[in-house]
Fold:
Amino acid sequence: MSIKPRLDYKSKFNRFIYLWRIYSSDKLGVAGLVLLAGISLTGLLAPYLPIKNPFSIEYPRFLPPSIEHPLGTDHLGRDVFSRVIWGSRTSLIIGFTAAGISALLGVTLGSIAGYYGGLVDDILTRIIDIFLMIPVFFLILFIIAVYGSNIIYVMVVIGLLTWPSNARIMRAQVLSIREREFVQAAILMGVKNSKILLKHIIPNAIHPVIANSILQAAGAIIIETGISYLGLGDPNAVSWGRIIYEGQSYITSYWWISFFPGVAIAITVLSLYLVGETLSKIFNPKSMAVRV
Amino acid sequence: MSLLEVKNLSVEYNTPSGKIKALHNLTFTLEKGEVLGFLGESGSGKSTLAYAIMGILPSNATITSGEIIYDGINLLKTSERDIRKIRGRKITLIPQNSMSALSPVHKIGDQMLEILQTHTRYSTKKAMKIIYNRLRTARLSRDVLNKYFHELSGGMRQRVVIAMSLLTNPDIIVADEPTTGLDVIVQFQILKELKSLQKKLGVSLIFISHDVSVIAYLSTKVAVLYGGYLYEYGTSYDVFKNSKNPYTILLLRSHPEIKSKKKEITEIPGSPPNMLNPPSGCIFHPRCPFSEDICKEKVPPLIKVGKDHFSRCFFINKISGENYE
Amino acid sequence: MNNLTPYIIRRGIQTILTIFLIIILNFFIINLAPGDPIRVIAGEFAFSNPEYVEALRKRWGLDKPVSERLFIYLNNLLHGDMGFSFRYMQPVAEVIGERILATLLLTFTSLILAFIIGVSLGVYSARRIGKPVDLALSFTMLLLYSMPVFWLGILLILFFGVHLRLFPIAGMFSSRVSYTGIFLVADVLWHMFLPVSTLTLAQLPIYYKITKASVIEQFNEDYVRTFKAYGLNREVIFKKYILRNAILPPITIFGLQLGFVLSGAALVEIIFGWPGMGRLLLDAAFYRDYPLLMGLYLVTAVSVALANLLTDLTYVFLDPRVKLR
Structure:
């Protein structure tokens, strides 16, 4: 599937409808979207759902899954099901915030590099190359160990380390759009550079970055759960990784504690991948949609 | 017996949006030493014809009727084993100009060798001799053998592809828009060489193009295609100097020529047909100045208008007397 | 190729420069972080005995300003001295050296396995696209791709190690018996099975996906059509030409992954108690063991830079379209 949506539709609403028609032809993409919507909604509404308090330790410990506790209880007597539901809030917030920061930085720097070219572009490309060699997980481990395990740090650091892939995409887009007639016309007419960038180039160039950001959100979730799994996550937040970490020692007898959060991670990441990949196929006809 | 006889060939494509009839009952012959030019706009079915003859139609295409008879053998009813002795050997292809007409990661020489060794049992030494010979015919130096396809200019790429088509001494060469996309000067060079090559070797050529001047330059016989139908068929003179078909005439009129005395070029009104939902009756009727009700209802038959000259139209009599340069 | 040597030299210099920059960057990040390592080393004497703390500080060179420490560090590096680990009380080079082999054993094995299996399955799927096998494989790969690697490891431990009691769930060697020779090898392999399987399964999907997409892309390339027209055997076209063209993207990925051969297995090593560099990293971060941290980052950065260099160079040989800028 390699249809490029016509980006010169008059009304934003029309554009959206057109996009939706193309998107919905990919069944997996739709499934992913539904899944993602479901998870997001659940996470959003968690405080209002008729589920048990995830922090409450009043229930009997180590109960296997039952109707009363669909996913059992853990070593402190907390209901695993509600912890898994609340865990989605943590993961989604981290995923989208990190991806958002990365997108913001990437779009800004990538546009500047692509639009102004020359020395600015050269320097930025070098910086991007160096950043791409940094082992993100390692660095985050270190930063947490030194500065403390605060969820904000995790989100921000992931965002600060992963912007290069967005910058690259943005830069390539800007380079090609810059040559188009309507941009050249605007330049000739004397429109300010910043206005050209903001009003004309970026809105047309941003689509692949959106697709990439969704994939990056998935990546951020994987990193965060990995960190929580090592016990370095925020102990006050309900994180899937941390639940797995806590349940590890009991895995042989009370497997459900570590099992279900893993399923939750897989489903969430899966839904993000499906959506991100479908979007990638639409916006980059020849892309092989690799998650960076 | 003609060298190649195509009878009532019909090809249909099955696409997600619906069925497309790419060729309708196409019938023509090719004699030894002839150059048959197929003239048509994009979508007229000319590439489909080339692929059908070469047996490389895509998997969603079906040959719904017809025969392709080469040297008395119906290619559509021959076994895979016997076809292999003909396809790529007695009938070869010059593909459209493209950067990836050959494998980009293999050397050109190796690929030429591969083709020769697929069809013959020659030793490498003998095969190389033949390859050198063909390179010379196509005005290429031997250096080309060690190069990769993308390293060559457009003109040289086409020369390579021409040389390739000659490797097995074919009887028929099917050339699918071989000069499209090349500079005009290079185009002319290649056409000139192709013409002299064809005369010298006596090989029959099926030449497919949308370019009137190219077809006019090379062909001895011309077939005009539109919407998958054969609209006119005859000698080069018949079709270009004595056309009896509205489409051909309009096509010629829309074609600019330096030598002509014409002062105006007129474009054909309307646009090419939507092959998913083609016009009823004569496919050309929405754009034809002569069209009347009957044209909307029935497909006009091919009518003989001269010795070996055929035209598909109900109103041929309206056309006589109008000659164009 | 007369452009090759200058290219290698240029890339070599770029790589060294990049490594240099990373070393400096690492140095500053680590040394400017809050938390005083001396206090950690001093332990219980941190507050009671200031002279001891000062002596320690002097001994470790931490009384000098940061910029001076940078020069000392760089100078030492050139002499092969990566510093002395606070925590392990050994030269950093030794600490890392003891464990690097264990890590490489895991990562190289799984990298190669993932490549071979992933690419093979990708090719297999591409030739059967749309069929049930393809759909099943695609779905499985998608699931594998989404699973966090540590959870996968836990599942494998649960199933194979605990439930089936087939494989050991921790360590690289059996602790109670000491094997030698071939038994030692067998013992290690037995311990390796689960961690390598985890890593391989985690990396498989990306090779599968890239390969499958790449092969399918090749199916639609012009040269495939040309070769079919020339009557080449389908298997020959596939094995010799399509595969050779399609293998390039998976190799790029392989090259990328190669860079993470020292850092990528950290989680798995921790889960399986594998005595590799993963544990080191965790400890070093916790205990503010600056020298060890810097050593680890240095080693990682060097491997990534080298892997990139290697991949670029290999690509020059594999893809003739690469321009030697």
About this structure: The mean pLDDT of chain A is 83.
